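Re: that chain you flagged

S.,

Sorry for the slow reply, it's been a week of failed gels. I finally had a moment to sit down with the sequence you sent. For the record, here it is as I used it:
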Amino acid sequence: MAFVERWSEIKPATEEVQKMTEQLKQEAEDKMKKKYKKFTAETYQYAPVYQLIIGTNYCIKVEADCDDHLYLYLFRELGVSRKLVLEKVVQRELSKLHPATELAFSLDQIKQQAEHRTDKNYHIFRGINYKTLLPEREGTATCFIKVQVGEVKKGYLILRVDHGPNSKPTLKNLLEKKNLNSPIEYFE
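Prediction finished late last night. Pasting the structure tokens below so you have them in one place:
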């Protein structure tokens, strides 16, 4: 997959995204060594690429007839060919919900990163709850954390944070304009 600086917000799948998903279904089945009756794009994220080959990376969440969702990582070239390349297919599973008080680090360690990313100052930065990406590697984890940042209905962020035993927590991405009832789901 080409280098990605920043992924977009999660968006509902469009007809175009569903068509890309269908075009890559057979290849995804071959990689997963499994046939799927249901293979429907639900949401997606994208990241433009401006390197040797110009195009767009996609991460598409697919509902398939399995316990968890599949995530298709693909690259689409710009230009006449619009060639699609399936980079990988993975199943992502998140842990059960935990209270933010159980985090292995203080949210103060990532507040400044979130403020820098959103170009806002948060007077409120209160952790609500979180999930981790399973399986966790020895000593390292990827957390998806819901944080209250305001008193308004959409005053919540969901942060994607990587952390390990010998490193500071690092904000990888965040979703804005979330509310208290917004589900915590996997995102790039």
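What I noticed first: The longest helix spans residues 108-118.

Talk soon,
D.
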